[in-house]
Design goal:
Blueprint lengths: L1 H25 L2 E4 L1 H7 L1 H13 L1 H24 L5 H54 L4 E4 L13 H11 L1
Parallel strand pairs: 1-2
Helix pairs in contact: 2-6, 3-5, 4-5, 5-6
C-alpha cells in the first residue's frame, strides 16, 4: 500500500511538472535593458542641462564662497607673520563666517539638486515603462525581465531598441 501511495504522489508530481513546463513553453518572455535605454535617450542629457541651468545662480554662489574661503586661507598662511593680532583675529572670524555660510548653503543645495534630478529621472523612467508596456502589448509578450537580471537571452527577445523607438514617439 505504501508503494502505491508513493507511486501515486510521484506520478502527481511528475504530471504537475510536465503541465507547468508546457505552460511555460507557451509564454513569450522578453528582456529589456532599462539602464541602457535611460542612458541612450536624449532626454537623459537634457535632464542634466536643465538642472544645471535651474540651479546656476545658487551653484555659482556656493562656488564663489569656496573660492573666497580658499583665498582667505592662503592669505592667512602667506601674511600671518606680518599681520597684527587684530588683523589675524578679523581674518579668522571672516574665514569662520564664510565657512558657516558655505555649510549653510552647500548641503541644502546639493540635496535640492538631487531631489530635482530624481524627479526628472522618475518622469523619464515612467516614459520608459510606458514604452515597455506598449511594446510588450504590441508583440504579445507575457513576461518582460530586466536584462541586467538575466544571464542569457536570445537577441530576438531583447526589446530594448523597440522600447527606445517607442519612448522617442511618446516624448
Amino acid at each position: 500500500m505504501k508503494k502505491f501511495t508513493k507511486s501515486l504522489i510521484a506520478g502527481a508530481l511528475i504530471g504537475t511538472a510536465m503541465m507547468s513546463s508546457a505552460v511555460q513553453a507557451e509564454q513569450k518572455i522578453g528582456a529589456v535593458n532599462v539602464q541602457g535605454i535611460f542612458q541612450s535617450l536624449p532626454q537623459a542629457a537634457t535632464i542634466q542641462q536643465t538642472i544645471a541651468e535651474e540651479f546656476k545662480d545658487k551653484t555659482e554662489e556656493v562656488s564663489r564662497l569656496e573660492k573666497d574661503i580658499k583665498y582667505y586661507l592662503e592669505k592667512n598662511q602667506r601674511d600671518a607673520a606680518t599681520m597684527s593680532d587684530k588683523e589675524k583675529k578679523e581674518l579668522q572670524e571672516k574665514i569662520i563666517q564664510l565657512r558657516t555660510d558655505y555649510e549653510a548653503k552647500a548641503k541644502p543645495l546639493q540635496q535640492e539638486i538631487q531631489q530635482r534630478a530624481q524627479q526628472e529621472q522618475n518622469k523619464l523612467l515612467g516614459l520608459i515603462r510606458q514604452g515597455i508596456e506598449a511594446v510588450a502589448a504590441k508583440e504579445k509578450y507575457d513576461v518582460i525581465l530586466n536584462a541586467t537580471a538575466v544571464t542569457f537571452i536570445k537577441p530576438e527577445h531583447d526589446i530594448s531598441k523597440a522600447v527606445i523607438e517607442q519612448v522617442n514617439k511618446i516624448k
